[in-house]
Every structure is written in structure tokens, then in C-alpha cells.
Amino acid sequence: MKHPLRLLAFVCIMLTLMACADDRRGGTAEPLHHPANAIYHWKTVYNPTPYEKDFLKKHQVKRLYLKFFDVGVDNLYDGKGEQPVPVATTIFRDSIKHIGDVEVVPVVFITIPALKCAPTLYSLAEHIIDRVDDMCWANHIAYREVQLDCDWTRETKPLFFELCHEVRFLLHERQKGLSATIRLHQLRDTLPDIDYGVLMLYNTESLVNPDVSNSILSSDVVSEYMRHVEADKHLDFAFPAYQWILWFKDRKFQGILRPGQDTNVEGCLRYEASLYREIIAAKRAIRPCLKDIGYPSSNIIYHLDSANLSRFTDHEISEIYRP
Amino acid sequence: MRFPRFIALSLSLLLPAIVHACGWWPSHSGEVLLYRIMPLDEAEYYDYAVQWSCDNLIHRKVDYKADNLLLWQRQTSRTIPLADIERIVYHADADYLLSLREQPRPSSAHDNAFIRWILAHQRTDILDFLILAKQNEEVRLSMTDPWYYDVKDSYHYRVLEEVVRQCRLYTKGPLLGRYALQMMRALCSLRDYQACADYWDSVKGRLNDDAIRKMAELRAAAALCKVDRRNEAFEIYVRYGDLASIRAVNGGQIDNELEFVYDRCPDSPYLAEEVQKWLLCTGDDEKTNMLLNVAHRAVKEKKSHQQAMWYYTLAALYDMKGATREARKYLQLGQRYPKDPYLRDTYRVMRIWLDAKTATCDEAYELQLMSDLRWLAGKIRREATPEVFARLHRYDDWGIADDEDDDHREVYQLVSNTFYWNDAMRRILFKAVCPRMHEARKYVREIQLANLAENLLVKTKGYAGEMFAIIDRLPYDVTRQYYTRIYQPLDEFDSWLNHRGKTDRNYWYDILATKCLRERRYATAIYYLRKVPVEFQQRLNVYEYMHRNPFSYDMETFVKDRSLAPDYKLRFAEAMLQYERTMKSDRDPNKRADAKIQYALGLRNSVHKCWFLTRHSSNLNYNSIRDAVPEIPYPADTTLYRHDEYLKLSTRLINEAILTYTDRDQAARQLRHLLYYRRLLTTFPDTPTAHDLRARCDEWRDYKRILL
Questions:
Q1: Residues in chain A whose beta carbon is closer than 8 A to a beta carbon of chain B?
Q2: What would the pLDDT profile of A110-157 be if each residue is shown by its tens digit?
Q3: Domain that holds residue A41
Q4: Among B241, B265, B297, which residue terminates a domain?
Q5: For tag attachment on chain A, is the N or C end more exposed, with fewer CB atoms within 10 Å?
Q6: How many domains does chain B have?
Q7: Residue A137: its chain B contacts at CB < 8 A?
Q8: Domain range holding B96?
């Protein structure tokens, strides 16, 4: 060997490239998180009921995806015109400490207008991360990752992908990770620059369509989606545990009524709920190639609400969480 | 919906466009809000969900800035320009001042007199205070950012707590009031209202009676509200006459807040903005009478030093009620009281307006008017500079800047203040002077003044302005006289007006020709139209319609024949002239009849689907413009544009022509073109055309398309 140093350098470069390639494929070499039972909290006030706290404990929920705020748009009349602003910030009425060793994942919902009017997506990313930092600091939350939720389409995909890229860069600087929710239709596309995704197995059909029988979850629709999908990143799976009443008049959607609301309205009502058998069927419909990429996938329930969760037996919840 | 950069091309285009953006700018002179005692500063911006209302208007805020600058001058040196103080106190940042503090350079090295004075007199205490105040304000400003999340122990809190700590250390000295104010602001931002109220209690007896004390006391009132000492807060607001805060604290319990404040604080700086708001919100009789009552009391009791404002208010209110004589009386009485330059100018505008409303249009008035218009034109030009137009170019017609997304504020300020003088002139001329000139039969002067109003600021390109509403009513001969006086002015006023109006030859040739076409003076129209170059025709706003055949049999179809333009009007006039001659003098009765029918069709179409031959704007666009000149009895559209008259004449000529034909089948063919099938079949049943018609259909009206 005439040039041992050159060989050493070549090996080093190759190793570096392989490390990078791995990172591009599916996130960090070290899994961002470990498999765990998880649940979403999607309310504007964090104040879990005893039932909800008990639920977390009983079902060994170790990760709580907690929506922190939405990013909408507003004109602040400061000469900058319409600009992204945080709205519907969650108010913490209870301390996170009271739910024990549950990891909290801050979730930020990004509206499409906010994406479109951001002066730069880097500045938006900075705003989001700084605010998440502040909220976590103020509420004594030690977070390890942030999740972005966005209903992007092919048209708005470049914007959201760039935002993910910027947010992930900022989070990695802080040794934290980024995940994103993935809707079924989005799975047909490439995935953004994230460490992992959460496949939302709900809202499978249009709720405004009067001909749909249950827009929350249809395992048939999930199966249909599953025919031609692949993923190059780790996915966890979120299943619905909610119900609502949809109000139609002359076949036109009028609004959503929550259980307990006055249903004495003109027109017809469609009661929808996530059914246990549909959830299990949807779980089965998920293609094996989407599961356990890099490390075992987790199951997540949407969302932490005693009125909805109490419709399920403990056994059913355990089955939903079963890997 | 974005349009190209055009907003400032013409004021007459700009203003209606802005109406859409912000909901209230005048679309014509009749909507101009004339009464002003102060410039308008800000508006509650347009919200698509909320209709604009006067209550959303916010005017120049009372910020004690001028008083504060004067106080700094008193505390340092009266030789320091206020602008230099303002640059440092209001615009410099903390880093700049810190660098001065840490590495002071010789005072002569600075271009700011305030800084030079501080360094020369080694007043580091002033620098220290300014640095602290800047840091305080910067942090407080950042806390208003929507992305800010209130975190105890954050950087923001630490800075504010440090501000409070340092302020507490300053217990005596010339800057005590300033430190007190900063401390109270910091405490309120920390939401420690109790500490703020307590501190105010302890320090208020030691503060000088100056602008800083006023600001601190108003801040204290805000804190007192929070610690359940609302009565004390209310007393402070009453003392300062802060109407909005009184309203907020008292919850709308006081019926006439304006009078309430006037009684307790007749010199309240907040009164002017409230009065201005009321003056803009005309139409509410109850409010008008309430304001009238307060204004009468103010001029009678003389408690207020703002006598000029109150007299102006009375003049405006009486003018609003149509009592011009009273309005003039109060305006005259107010002339002798001191006033700021803005009010001085609006006094003059009001005087010109009231003069115009009552003027007899004699020579003396015209001289006075010329002098007034000279002043007003100068004012308009000084305000609406090319720089202003350049700024407006950045916005589209929704008030949205090309490079800054949505922001109506600058557009609002520019349009409501900079263009106010032009708006006022338009209203004075269109609503008052022109009608008076019309009554006095001074039609040429009427057109000249309308031209000035329309074109002083920007030469309009369109033909839909109020000047056209006026020209439309006047006959060709008068317009011709006006045109003559462009080149042969009779007096100095003529020359002055000509110089400022739009006197472009091609523009007027087209107008004169159009009036001739309307009056069936085709030979004269040809004379003018031959002088209008094609390039000019192509710039006409009606050029895009010049593909409709003016001799079409069909009244409604709009077949596009692009070969008709250019020289559309000229060709029409030449054809009409030729038809006119043929129908009058050809020996062949069939040719005479054919020409008569063509002439009748041209006449009908020139006031109908080819309306742009005889006027410059369609009826639809004219409706609001015509509202602008309601003083003059205005003929109905049909009369003005001879619509019905020419339709009747056209029908009569066609009937005559049919009777003239000696060739029965030729007559039948014309009737067929005109869709007069019944008449064809009853009058000329034995002609080949009638045979053909019968062979083709039994319900001929239903088969019109097949037949054609």
C-alpha cells in the first residue's frame, strides 16, 4: 500500500457519506423516540379530568401529543401586512407534572394561508420553535421533539416541506427531533424532511358529503389508500376515538354538532363515531411495509377526551394500543 | 384581485378604486367630507366582516410628543433643534447610545446637536437614562408581538425588573419624572399594577407639572383601574378629558360624553379628535344637535382656548343643516382667533365653499375665485408631490403594496390627508361653483372650472369623470366656444384655467366630434375627426367597443368586426353624411329609400348599441357621477343622449323609406332584414321574397335564425 493515508481518508469519507445517507433515508441513526402508547390532546385548555389522568395511567400512555397553538394569519397593521401569527394557544390550567412521566410532544397546526404569507419560512420556523421553547419553559415541559400538523396538498407541498426542513434544522441544533402528521392522501406523495411521521387514520372521507356513511373512519377507504403506498420514513399510526353529529339540510352540510348540543334543527342529522371494529380493521389494513421502519411503530389515540374515550372498554383500548 | 400599478394615474380613478379598499373614500365630489379641524391619522382598518362605520375612525393620537421634546430642550439647551432631540429620543436605538456611553468620541464628531450637548456637558446621566428607557421600550414593544409568550423569569421579565430596580435608585434629580414614568411602564408590563399604583402614590407629590407627569398620571390611571380604584382612575381621565378612557371606565353611562368632557376639561386635547369624528359622521341629527349645543356653549362661555375650532365647528354644523348664512357668520367670527396652520387652511377652504354656495357670479366674485383657486392649486401641488405618487404606485386598488402584502394605512393617510385639498376643490367646484355658473349662463366658465377640478392634479385619461357629466348637458355650440377660448382667452382667468386644465387638441376634437355626432352635424364631425390621429383613438377608453357595426340591422347582437376600427367614428360620420345626401337628392327612389334605411339604422345604433359614437360613457357608470351635480336640473338619460328621440325618428324614416320604394321586392327584402315579416307578407305578398319566406317557415318568427 503506497498511500495508507489516502486510503484512510477514503474510508473516512465513505463512512461519513453512509452516515449522511442513513440520515436522509429515515432520520437520525438513534431513534427519535421509543415505542410507547400515545394520545393526542387537541383542546385549547389543558386541564385533564380525573378520568383522563386515570386513563393515561391505566393504559400506560407514555407520550402526549399536545397541541400548543395554530399558526394562522393576521394583519397587525405594522406595515408588514398579513403575516403568520399564533392563534388558539392552549391555556394550561393544570400542571404537566400531574401526569407523571409522560413525555409531551408539542404539536403546532399550520394553516395554509400562514404558509403562503410567511415572509420567509426560516423566520416562521424560528418563530415556531422559539414560541414552543417559551411555552415549554413556562409550563415546565421538557420536550424532545416537535410535531407539525398541516393539511398540505401538492400545490402547497413545497412550502410545507421547506418549513419542515427549516424547523428540523433548528431542532437538530438543539438535539431535538421533528415529526409531522401525515394524512392518507399525503402518503401517496413523498414525505417532508422529518424524523418520522404520524399517519392519521381518521377523517378518511369528506364530512360534507351527504352520501358518506361515516367520514371519521372507514377501513374500506383505508384499504383502498393502502393499495399503492410506500414510505421511506418511520411511521406511527393515529386512530380516532371521537364522535360527532353532522347536520345536513337539502343535502348540504350545515355544521358539526357535538354530543350534548341541541339537535332540534331543521334538516337531517348524521351521527358518526369511530367504531372499535373499524379501528381494528384499519389497523389490519395497514400495509406491513409501512410498519416498524427503523424501529417499532407506536399507536396513538386521537384524542384525550373522557366523553369519547369512555365509549371504549379497557380491553378495546388495549387492543388499539397493541403493536 | 390585483391590478397593475396604476393607482396614481389619476385621482378620479384613484378615489373610486380606494372605495373598494377601505369602504369610505369618496367616489365623486358629492361624497367628499369637507369639514376638517385636524388631519386624519389612522383608521380602523378595513375588515371584510365589518361594515365601516365612523366610530372606527381614529384620529391623531394625543401623545405629548411635542411637549416632551420641548421639555428636553428646556432641560438641556434651547439652542438644540427639536428635530435633533427627536432623532435621539424617539428614533435612536439602545445599542447606539450604549456605544456612545462606552466609547465617547469628541462631541464635535457627532452631527446631532443633542448628542454634542450631552457629551460636551458630560451629562452621562442623560445617556444612562436614555439607554434604560430604550431598553425598556424595546422589551415592552417585543412583548406586544403576537409570537410573544408570557414567561415569568424570561429575558423580558429580567430586563423589566432591572429597569424597575434602576428607576427606584433614582430618587431625586432633574430626571425624576422621566425615571418614574419608565418605572411605571415597566411595572405595568410586568403586570404588577399594585406596585405601580403604590409607586404613583409615593411619587406624585414630587413630580413637576409637565408633559412627563401627564404621561405618568395617565399610566397610573391604567394601573388604578386594575387594582379596583376605578373612581380615582376616572377622575384622572376626566381631568385630562380622555374621552375614550372615560367611556371605557364608565361603561357608556354618560349620555353626552363630549359635553361632559367640555364641562370638566374645556382644553382637553382629546376634544378636537372627538369633534372631528362627529363632523365626519354627518347625517345623525341627534348627534349634530348635541355637538351644536356644546359648540354654542364653547363660543359663548369662552372657557376653551380652542375658540377657532369651536367656531369652525359651528360653521360646519350650520352648513350641514343648509343654513349657509349662519355658517358664514360663525366662520367669520372665528377668523380672529389664533389657529394652527392646518386649521387656518381649512378655514379658508370653508370660506371658499360658503362663498361659492352664495355667490352671484359677477366679475368681483370671479376675481375672488381666481385668487382662492390660485392658493388652493398651490396647496394641492405642494401636498401631492411626485414622491407621494411614487409611494402610491406601490399599491394596487385594494390598497395592497406590491412588496409588503396588505397594508392600507399609508394609502389611508395619503388619500385622506394629501389629497384632501384636491377633494375639497373638486367638491367646491363641482357642487357649488359650476352650478352657480350654469345658472348665470356662463357655460364656458363652467366647463373651464370643471376641467380644472378634473385635471389639475393629474390629467385624466378616461371620459367618465364629473367634467363629462357637465359637458354632456351642454350643447355643441357652447363646447365649441370653450374650445375657442382655449386658444383665444378673453381674460386672465381664462388663461390661468387653460393652463391648468386639459386642453390637448386631440382630446377636445374627439369631444367636439362626439357632440356633433349626437347632434347629427356629420360634416362638422368629419372636420374634427379627420384631425384625430389613430394613435389617439386607440387610447380612448371606448376603443375596445369599436368593432360593432353601426349599420347593423340587428339591435342586440354584438358581432365583432375588427376591420371597423380605426377611424371608426370618422367612417361612421362620412357614411351618414353620404346617406343623408343620397336620401335627399338621388334621382332613383330605390337608392333614396336604401340610403334612408341605412341612415335610420345608423341613427338608431348610434344611441343604442354603438352608444360610444354619441357619448363617452355608458349610463351605468354615469349614475353616481350624475349624483355629484344634483343642484342643476338634469335631463333624463334618454333626453340627454337623444335615445328615444332618435329611435322614433329611425322608425319614421324606415316607414317612409318603405313607401318610397318602387321596386317592391327590394322593399320586401329590407322588411325581411328588419324582421318585419307580417308587414312583408301583408304589404308585398306577391314578391319573390314573400314567396321564399312562406316556403321556408310557417311560424316565421320562430325560424328567424334559419331565415337569416
A1: 74-77, 79-83, 85-86, 89, 117, 127, 130-131, 134-135, 137-138
A2: 999 999 999 899 999 999 999 999 999 999 999 999 999 999 988 899
A3: 34-241+273-321
A4: B241
A5: N
A6: 2
A7: 151, 154
A8: 65-241
